[in-house]
Write a structure and sequence with these properties.
Pfam families: Tom22 (PF04281)
Subcellular location: Mitochondrion outer membrane
Order of helices and strands: HH
Largest sheet: none
Protein name: Mitochondrial import receptor subunit TOM9-2-like
Organism: Durio zibethinus (Durian)
Family: Belongs to the Tom22 family.
Radius of gyration: 40 Å
Structural class: mainly alpha
Shape: rod-shaped
Helix content: 55-70%
Number of strands: 0
Length: 105
């Protein structure tokens, strides 16, 4: 007795053999030189942006620490000087001396 096909059920699509070239449209598009150039351009753009982000972070760190070391003490000292000048003016006004205009260099 010969093997008879089963009735009902699902029929599966035939599998492609390894020797048969894949000629689907998706395979042709993904293997095209335009797509490979696009992938390479995307990889290059990601590499450049990563390097740019890293160097920008380093520059921001240098600028921030320089600001803290050089500018913040200067701002604090200028504030102290202003408070000292205001205190002198207040004491002079209490003692009855004529007010003098603060000297601005």
């Amino acid at each position: 007795m010969a093997a008879q096909p089963r009735r009902g059920g699902i029929s599966l699509p035939e599998r492609r053999s390894a020797s048969k070239p894949d000629s689907s449209i998706i395979a042709r598009i993904t293997s095209s030189p335009i797509v490979s150039r696009g992938k390479q351009a995307a990889c290059d753009a990601a590499f450049v942006s990563k390097k740019l982000l890293r160097s920008t972070g380093k520059a921001a760190w240098i600028a921030g620490t320089t600001f803290l070391i050089l500018v913040v003490p200067l701002i604090i000292e200028m504030d102290r000087e202003q408070q000292f000048t205001e205190l002198e003016l207040q004491q002079a006004s209490l003692l009855g001396a004529p007010p003098t205009a603060p000297a601005h260099p």
